[in-house]
Amino acid sequence: ELVCSKGPLLPLFTALKLHRIHLIRLQGKGLISALPALWQLRQQRYDRVYVPFASSTDHLLAAWVRGCEKLGFDDAKGDAIFARPEPIEEDRHYAYRPLRLLGVDAGPEQQIALGLPVATRHPQLVELARAHPGQPLIGFFTGARKGKGLSPIQWQRLLAQLRRQAPDAVMIQFNDPAAPLPLVGDVTLSLTSLCEFAAVTAGLSLFVSCDTGPLHLAAASGVPCLGLFTQTDPRHYGSLGAQHHNLVVTDRDQIALNHQWLSRVMERERPSLPPAPLFIEQSAHQPLNLQQAC
Q: Does a structural domain hold residue 287?
């Protein structure tokens, strides 16, 4: 069983065949609606409870749940909950820390594959690629919380640099449908799910974003990513994989790009478009024979 706080993450877990997913959000008005799920958790006794993130909210839930064995980290009062809490390894990338609870000592040489449905290309991306044949498709996401992002003017300056590197590129701005931002690219896309987002980014030439969730989801889809780290440390939060470039930004008004890396990315062969659809007209009086149609 899985406990998580937000519905948009649910499509990522559909392939895991979980017995039950509990949506619990303890902040603000979410506390009242979470009470039935909290009571349901309390009624069950679990063999093991894994707490992969050392936060006060997660540790509060871990203390509430009844379990024979609870595994977590010694940060945020974890030593009061877990019998043998794992120490936080400050030098380890954040993505690998939770694996320590499973006894797995993973490192950057071991790729983490996110099983997302990106085998087929998204219709909106197919349409864009056909409208701009041979032109690089560069996606970017301007939203970032807690002061980690860039202002619209700073994004315009950064995009101007990218245009000098790839003059014929189409700049695709990804918007959060709940909080759309001013358009600074050529076109904008507002997608309804994280799986849709990954399906689109998988077919891009490049994806650019500050350190936020869409950056890491795009990186997992396989597209080369330019991550802009204005506050956080890429040693802990950088995109994993040799095809990505994690850039520490000290001056948001004058971002120094790695033009050699950008040149290699622009020369990289993008996934080919699927073949044009085949339309077969069916007679109202004749059943469709697939063998004859093929």
A: no
